[in-house]
Design goal:
The structure is a single chain. This protein has five helices and eight strands, in the order ββββαααααββββ. With 259 residues, the protein is an alpha+beta fold. The protein has one domain: paralog of FGE (formylglycine-generating enzyme). The strands form three sheets. It has a four-stranded mixed beta sheet. The relative contact order is 0.23.
């Protein structure tokens, strides 16, 4: 774990909007805490499964997802594969919370997650203000944009991705990378992969995603390997977040814990 000293969170940044949604963070004092330096790995999660405190997860689950999309993206779930040092993904919010309890920790709130990712200076990225690039984060570079589209077309996905890459170079990974593979992207407190690789569940709850649903949602932060934009509203900016149904299990979402 990495120690994050007490400080003051200043949300928003110069090119963005201080009232960022969802999960708007109000400026205020932050206590000291410790947070996992990396995303929880598939290997670490396997220990929780072996102890009987976690459930094995090898497939994605998303409301309304078509079978072809679900089958293709389930192949990127890291549990039970040789990708033991990659982040544990394809977990629901309950799965992530259960692991953190087993480890004697808890999920971070969106506010504490953001502070750990950007510190108190309002920087646009965990590493500072330099542009996003293939040596700073695992996102959708040229290796991802064309290959993901091609795979989805071949598998018969009805609405395959059509995207331009975030940067012209390749970060070397079609999907997730081993945690800590991008040291130039560290946060001011030394945390790894706070932008890219997998987005991360937080403890912060959101409203139901539709008027007809009472299923809870939670805020996820950090962006993932398939994000193709670094624009001000991109989730690779620590102040940006999105809402996800608590039961969703995606190959683009993992977690880390706090104590």
């Amino acid at each position: 774990m990495s120690f994050v000293p007490a400080g003051k969170l200043r949300p928003g940044w110069e090119a963005g909007d201080a009232a960022e949604e969802p999960g708007t963070v109000l400026e205020g004092a932050v206590p000291a805490f410790c947070m996992d330096t990396t995303e929880v790995t598939a290997s670490a999660y396997a220990g929780c499964v072996a102890a009987g405190a976690c459930r094995a997860r090898t497939s994605v689950e998303a409301p309304g997802a078509e079978p072809a999309w679900r089958a293709l993206h389930s192949e990127q779930c890291n549990y039970g594969t040789p990708r033991t040092t990659h982040p544990m993904n394809c977990v629901s919010w309950d799965d992530a919370a259960a692991y953190c309890r087993w480890a004697g920790k808890r999920l971070p709130s969106a506010e504490l997650w953001e502070y750990a990712a950007r510190g108190s200076d309002g920087r646009p990225y965990p590493w500072g203000s330099e542009p996003a690039g293939p040596r700073r984060l695992n996102a959708c570079g040229k290796e991802c944009a064309a290959a993901l589209h091609k795979l989805e077309v071949e598998r018969g996905v009805a609405t395959p991705h059509g995207m331009e890459p975030m940067f012209p170079g390749s970060d070397g990974w079609l999907a997730t990378a081993p945690v800590g593979s991008f040291p130039q992207g560290r946060s001011p407190f030394g945390l790894e992969d706070m932008a890219g690789n997998v987005a991360e569940w937080t403890a912060s709850a959101g409203p139901p995603l539709s008027p007809s649903s009472d299923e809870p949602s939670h805020i996820v932060r950090g962006g993932s390997w398939d994000v193709s934009s670094a624009a001000p509203d991109s989730p690779v900016h620590p102040g940006r977040g999105s809402l996800l149904a608590a039961t969703s299990r995606l190959d683009t979402v993992g977690f880390r814990c706090l104590r």
